[in-house]
Amino acid sequence: MDMETTQKTNYQGKWFLVYLILIFGFVGIADAGFLTYKYYSGGTTVCPLTGGCDIVLGSDYAKILGIPVALVGLLYYLTIFGLSIWVLKKRDGTAFAFVYWLAAVALLASVYLLFIQFFILEYICIYCLASEALSAAIFVCALIFRQKLAGKI
Predict the structure, then answer these.
(1) Which residues contact residue 121 at a Cβ distance below 8 angstroms, ignoring those fewer than 6 apart?
(2) Which residues pair with 64 in a beta bridge?
(3) CA-to-CA distance for 18 and 33, rounded, in angstroms?
(4) With a threshold of 0.70, does the pTM exceed it?
(5) What is the pLDDT of residue 45?
(6) What DSSP designation does 59 have?
(7) ∠ CA 35-130-76, rounded to 5°
(8) Maximum CA pair distance of the chain?
(9) In the prediction, which pLDDT does 75 show?
(10) What distance in Å separates the CA atoms of residue 126 and residue 53, rounded to the nearest whole number?
(11) Which positions of the chain have pLDDT values less than 70?
(12) Contact at 8 Å (CB) between 70 and 58?
């Protein structure tokens, strides 16, 4: 493979990560949107596999300063989705810094919420786990993209 083909492949592969983040953001919007709807509608949540969704979503830990964590998650995923579109449209790696740092904060929040589910509440919400996995996937893609921009990989 010649140098030009290698550079073109690396360039395309790098931006593919942003497309993945965009997809993960879209799925996160659906997940967090569903949980936000359930919170405000007051309906029970069918929780396949774990059965603890209503307990987790109704706990004191499900709010931050009176705001549902699900709504904060929805705002996060909407922001990630919008920023990813912006980064892809502009092909601006510098603007990607916002995505990276936002994903890092979300990952830390997800680890904290995961800890609460497993060790404090001792109940698991499958939708919450999906959101935490999406946050981790977004961060991993953002980290790899950042490393590729810096020429480290």
Answers:
(1) 52, 55, 56, 59, 61
(2) 67
(3) 22
(4) yes
(5) 87
(6) S
(7) 60
(8) 60
(9) 98
(10) 7
(11) 1-12
(12) no
